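Shift notes (night). Ran FAD-dependent oxidoreductase while the centrifuge was going.
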Amino acid sequence: MPTTYNNPVYPYRRPPELDREGVRHCPVVIVGAGPTGLAMAIDLAQQGIASVVLDDNNTVSVGSRAICFAKRTLEILDRLGCAKPMVDKGVTWQRGRVFFQEREVYDFDLLPEEGHRMPAFINLQQYYFEEYLVDRADALSDLIDLRWLHKVTEVASHPERSEVMVSTEDGDYRLSCDYLLVADGANSKIRDMLGLESKGQVFQDRFLIADVIMKADFPTERWFWFDPPFHPNQSVLLHRQPDNVWRIDFQLGWDADPEEEKKEENIRPRVQAMLGEDVEFELEWASVYTFRCRKMDDYIHQRVFFMGDAAHQVSPFGARGANGALQSTENLAWKLARVLKGEAHEALLATYNDERQHGAAENILNSTRATDFITPKSRVSRLFRDSVLELAERYPFARRLVNSGRLSMPCHYDDSPLNGHETEGLPLELRPGSPAKDAPIGLAGRRAWLLNQLGDRFTLLLDGRVDSARAETLRAELEPLLARQDDLDLLVVGPAPHALTELPRSRQIEDVENLVGERYGLTAGVAYLIRPDQHVSARWHEIKAADVEAALDRTLGRHLNAEEARHATA
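Came back to this:
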């Protein structure tokens, strides 16, 4: 098949451990240099934590695989220094259309409001995504030891450390580490070595992915067909990618023969029937897949942490796989960094499992519902689906029932044990446990973005538009707090009195389009405590240093006494 992309080949390097005695100990070893493992290594490096990354391959993924990257994922990658090449190369989109048989029933807009740096979605082949991550990891090589063609063959998990045996063309060596992070994919070998399971449901249907190269005048939108005339009784999805590549996803049915369906002579008639006889195209990549929705009951096994597809797996409907994986890495990285630096209790790490089990369950629920709607398995469910689609053409209420893959949305950790003080009268979307929202700002006389001022550290976002007397009171409250809390920055929405802008680690921003105030419900004195992963920890109408400190102690596990700490890590 022709291709528009030449996979880079990364060099193998002889490991120094072969030329020294003893077992080298590392803070962190990461297994898997795919998107999850690389994003984790980059996030840790930005927070001062070194890692060794092991991968048994020496290139990026073959075929485009994941292609849809959501706004929240792009915001995470922007913090990691990887978003710009993705947005520059990717195809930006925010509109979708839903078709039933021969007609369009409705369309939708995923980001109808202005004032966001990142688009609702981009489409980008996974091999580009991985290449940009490798480039960023290489730029952080003083803290990321990225090793290609290093295969983990044995794992030993202990309460205080983990050990791995690594095989290379020059021989085998051992590493021990404080924490072993596993991102070796859905069929995780490490999970098998430890006798652990990922449980869930296999869906009895087959789908054909065909990535075709063609010049077409279709708009840059997501098009989804139910029961189209060119592929009756099944579904079809169309997406545009860079380099004139288009993703077409055909539902085939459970009885389809995967080997036969992958043959080009069988793919071409399907694509031609969809596009029309006069459209010329080349087939770049094709795959037939059956998918699962499943997850591990616990992502933590002593000092081994599972991430990405190794921990949880969903169907491709809704683009929740890669997007969910990146939300997992940002959740774990800041916690692990602070534990390794001695700034947080080890019990904090258990909340990775608490919060991301919630995220995975949400993704699996949406993915399962989408699959059930797209592939009805009974006459009654088919009748329900078709009736909903008929109604959706005329009645907006029915459109909420159509499920062609509810697209990935940021996760809100509503029941997280880390959530601090909540106050009434502030926007529900930014309740504790929620990801922060972006908005344009002014910073030192230039235009900037709010989210670029958040991340990697704790931030107290304060509406500093108060009178001088109130500013002096706030200064007296906050100055000792900032002196005690080295990991806390102050971001003041101004114009604010000098009493606030001259505080240690304080920066003033201007609400140039009044969108920060609107989205955060700001009035004078309102404050948000935001975690290093850009999630809201607590918020107040009127802050007191003791309340902020209590929220920080809760988030970092400092409030636990010795007995509670032992229970939390058990």
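The mean pLDDT is 93. The chain has 16 helices and 28 strands.
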